[in-house]
Write a structure and sequence with these properties.
The chain contains nine helices and no strands. By secondary structure, the protein is mostly helical.
Amino acid sequence: MQEAKRAIEFLLFESNVSNYKISQETGISQPVLAKYSKGVSDIENMTFGNAIKLYDCYLKLKGEKVLGNKDRDMLFGKLFATADVFGSGVFEKDKYSVQNKYMEKFQKKPMSTFVKIHEDLMNYTHKFGRKEDILMKQFDEIVDEIGLESYDDRPLGDKWLLGFYKQRHDLENI
């Protein structure tokens, strides 16, 4: 049941699927969907029939690849690069780099490894300055782009390296 709730929340709050499209797929009126997506009506109080329709819609659109982050690997690569640049600014010079310590683990289990990297970085909050504040905002934006549905430990494909090196290049001058 929790999986269905998460799926419905993703469909209504995080996906880029319009209420019009959801209405066409489910038969639920746009005004009803607007109440849910704007938080006027609590999704926990929706009818069982609407919940089933929305969950089925989620599964259908996911199967058609309308939902989900098509660039999950790239986004995780960007996240890792941001963490690496972040670490190079706050860790002691003789300490490992994020890239050296975590690269292999990150490709296999990106979410769990990122949690560990994040913990390591947060131990250095006393060293945070303007650059680190910018990088923290980058973390927020990238994790938001990854979204709840794609933030997991599925192994990354080779495209993650493209995201990693592109982001490292983009962060060179901050």
